[in-house]
Structures are given as C-alpha cells and as structure tokens.
Amino acid sequence: MSDSKKYNVLFLCTGNSARSIIAEAIMNKVGRDRFQAYSAGSHPNGTVNPYALDVLHRLDYDVTGFRSKPWDEFARPDSPKLDFVITVCDNAAGEVCPIWPGQPMSAHWGLPDPAAVEGTAVEKALAFADTYRMLNNRISAFTNLKMSGLDRLSLQRNMDDIGKTGAASQVEPQQG
Questions:
Q1: pLDDT in tens, 56-83
Q2: Residues forming the active site
Q3: Can you give the pTM of this predicted structure?
C-alpha cells in the first residue's frame, strides 16, 4: 500500500438510499486527496432517502449527484478498479457479491438502518444524524491510516476493528 496512491472505495448497502450514500459523501469530503468513494446497492430502491440528503445538505455537502444504483455497475470490466469494498448494512454483508475487478479488500461496518426508524420527523432526522456521526468517525479513522506502513493483513485487521468499534487498533495518522 502507498500513501501517494488515490484509492477507490465502494460502500454497499441493500437499498443504496441512506447509509451507503452518506458514507460515499463523507469519504469524498474527508478523504478527497487519497480516496474516491462510490456507493451502490444489491437491490437499490431507485431513490435516495430525503432524510439522508437533508442531513448531508445541512452539513454543507453538495447533494446534487447522488443516486440509488445497482452494485453491478461496479463489476463491469470498464468500472473503476476498486481497492476497498465496505458493507454498511447487515443484509448486504450476507449476500453473494459480484466478482469485483482488482480483488479489493473488504470489510463490514454494519450500522442500524435509519430509514427503518418509526416516529416523528425529528426522531427520523436524529437517526440519520446518528448514522452520519458513526460513519464520519469510522471513515475518519480509516482515512487516517498510514497505508505505507501497513501490509494487507494489518490493514485488514484495522478495517475490521474500525467496523467493530469505530476506531482502528493501530491507527497511525497520516504525516503531512
């Protein structure tokens, strides 16, 4: 692994309407110099959840380009070569995934589905804000890994730890 390379990251969820969209937005902002993020779903519902767009818009993200799309778009020969595939929901983690070009590393960072929250608009907005917070913490920990100091096994362990606790076991902040 190299700290100078720009890595492609695909975030997966079943519907590609909330968690994976939020993760894509965060990674493209937090990791913009080192990472290019995408999102997709195993069974995309075709629309991005308005609460996901709202939480991102309120935090000054440009939300104009987001769309719910199938993961097959990233399994084509002309797709970006993926370095990392991260599932953010338990359903997508248990499904048989396509063969990804480039044999990317994978991790599972399961989170509760904010779109499943029942209640008032305020309660739903709070669920999405909490999802944003958890993903932001995990993605920040991941983007601060010093890639050049990690072999694949160590990087995999750190990715798994981030998904379990929100923080890597041996995070070394990027220098410079």
A1: 999 999 999 999 999 989 888 888 999 9
A2: 13, 89, 97
A3: 0.88
